[in-house]
Amino acid sequence: MPITKAKYFIDELTDWERTIAFYAGEIDLLTSRLHEVIRRNSIPNIAQQVEIQQSGLDRVSEKFSHLQVLLTEQKTSLKTDSILIDDSVINDKIETKQQDLRQGMLKAEKECIEARSNCQYFLSEIFKNNSE
Question: For the ranges 42-46, 48-52, 82-86, which has the lowest average pLDDT?
């Protein structure tokens, strides 16, 4: 049986939900490490530097939270009474929303990777400087 458009869309949405959960875990881990830096460090102005990194992670987290709401709404629009809708019912609005979600996820992932890399670099510099 060929895959239906609704099934493909649902699978894509589910993959994005898993991606968001993965990044949420990484953001939580980095946030914990930033808090550890504050607790253990006496470098002047470190709190301000940590706040910059935390703000980047918070922005990405907010974007993912908003996307999660939109993903849930799209999943709902693809089902009737927990059954996938027929492809003939999928209209331009549903397809456009799926494409917008696809673009939103791509943008959010790129921003997350950048924020994560910046934070990891910051942390490695802090820990490197502390060990010297």
Answer: 42-46
Contact 55, 82 (CB under 8 A): no
Cα 65–Cα 69–Cα 73 angle in degrees, nearest 5:
165
Instruction: Quote the tokens at residue 37.
Output: 């830096």
Q: Rounded to whole angstroms, how far apart are CA atoms 128 and 37?
A: 12
Element (H, E) at 62: helix 46-77
For residue 114, give every residue at least 6 positions away whose Cβ sits within 8 Å of its Cβ, in sequence order, or none: 56
Residues 6+ apart with CB under 8 A from 43: 126, 129
pTM for the model:
0.88
Q: Rounded distance, CA 103 to CA 60, Å?
A: 15
